[in-house]
Amino acid sequence: MQRPTIKTIAQETGLSIATVSKALKSSPQVRPETRAIVVAAAERVGYELNMHGVQLRTGKTYQVAAIMTAPGPKQQEWEGVEYAQLLSGISWALEDSPYRVSLYAVRNFEESLATIRQIVALKKADGIIVSGTRADDPRIRIMQAADFPFVTYGTTIHNDAHAYVDADNEQMIRRSVARLVERGHRRIALINPLADLSYAITRLAAYRQALDVAGLAFDPVLVAHDRLTPAFGRESVLAMSRLPDPPTAYICANEASALGAFSGFHERGLVHGRDAVINATDDLNVSQYFAPPITTYFLPIHEPSELLGSYILRRMEGEPPEALQALIMPRLIERSDDRVTPKR
């Protein structure tokens, strides 16, 4: 029996061979209803796309490289859970296309840079998704110089325009500080990511501006930068709570550092709502299970991850990067009044 071909599907549907070919490759030039007709016909005639042949003809790999800085197997850190969720969202966004995501786990920025150089030089993928952006990111310059399609999970400050998805860190921190000031807090700590990351710079600038608007002086001892681990959150609370004038509120950049902050509260004998409060950014909604549950700015991780997948598809089709930029404002979930009520 002769193997079904694209020509077979064209005869079955009455569409042109070119239209059938584009539909099978999920080209945006084909309307969704037309693609549905082609897919149904392909299933009826038993057509299977020969990806190896397509790769040889087109020069494409049909791979999207997701480059993520992940903790090592012995570090037992929280980040691995978030990366699994992020990859799932990207994969779901690609599932109706011929593209599949390949994970490149790296240990640090230098490995990420070397990996991108290799992928671009050897054309090991057709597009790249990368996180952990810096204010002036050399990885972006490499991809732009090669006209290589990419999307970043995170913004930059000094690079040329590029496709990105990120939380609106500036507005989130402004609103978080203003809300805490309204509730009587005057000493507000910022538990921030590594200082060279772009979103850490954005958060710090927004924090300082919000303090200025509130008429409060900036105190550098109330800001801590490091990898966002539970250990970092704990160490920050242990250090800051011993200050002569300790903070009454801690804004943590993720739920892992917030969990560690609670550990610091426990060790120091602090009570949430009596001595100080903790707020956080949350993307897994784990904070609802803390005791007590804390106020968060919640951005479900599937939202940015699916958008990353959608944007890389559109970028690989040639859509300009300026049209593929999204800042998503996390949703405030108030689980506590967050006023400090000293014990009488």
TrEMBL record:
UniProt KW keywords: DNA-binding, Transcription, Transcription regulation
InterPro entries membership: HTH_LacI, Lambda_DNA-bd_dom_sf, Peripla_BP/Lac1_sug-bd_dom, Peripla_BP_I
GO-annotated molecular function: DNA-binding transcription factor activity; transcription cis-regulatory region binding
Higher taxonomy: Bacteria, Pseudomonadati, Pseudomonadota, Alphaproteobacteria, Hyphomicrobiales
Protein name: LacI family transcriptional regulator
A Pfam family this chain is assigned to: Peripla_BP_1
Domain of life the protein comes from: Bacteria
Domain HTH lacI-type intervals: 4-58
Organism: Rhizobium lusitanum
